[in-house]
Task: structure prediction
Amino acid sequence: IKFKGQSRRVRCMAAGCGFRTSEMTSSEKLSRVYAAQESAEDALATFDPETGDASDLATIRDDMANELREVAQEYTDSADNMEQSFTGGSPTIDDCREKAENLEAWADELEAWEPEEWEPEEPEEDEKPEEQPDDDGPRDDSGRTQSEWGEAQREALSEIVGNCPL
Result:
C-alpha cells in the first residue's frame, strides 16, 4: 500500500502478514480507533475461558473505551478549531462531530457491558458431590462450567467490540 507523501509498504502473501485495518488508513484518528479495536480483539482471542476472570474482560473493555473517548475528544477539538476559522460551517465540521458522537456512543455501549462473575455453586456441607470420570468441574447456578461461562462472556464482549460505527 502507498499513501500520498509516504513510502510504499509491502507485506508477504502469508495469512499472518496481511495489513490490519489500522494500517490501511491515512487518518491518524481512525487508525487509533481501529488499533484499539484490534488490540481488544487480540486480547479476547488470547483470553482463556478456563482460567480467566471477569476482571480480565473488564480491563479489555475499559482500555478500548478509554482510547475511543480520547479519539472522540480529538474529533471534537478538531471541529471546535475549524468552527473558529470557518464561521459559515462546513461538512468536515459536521463529519468530525458525527464521528465524535459515534465514538462516544460506542464507548458508552462498551462501558454499559458488565461481565458476569464466575460463581461456582457451593455444595451443601452434608452433600458430597458425586465424582464422575467425565465431570467438567464445578458449575454455576445456571449449570455452566467455567469454560462455558468464559466463552459466553468473551462472545458477548466480542460482539460489542466488533460494532465499529465508523
Remarks:
- The two ends are 21 Å apart (CA to CA).
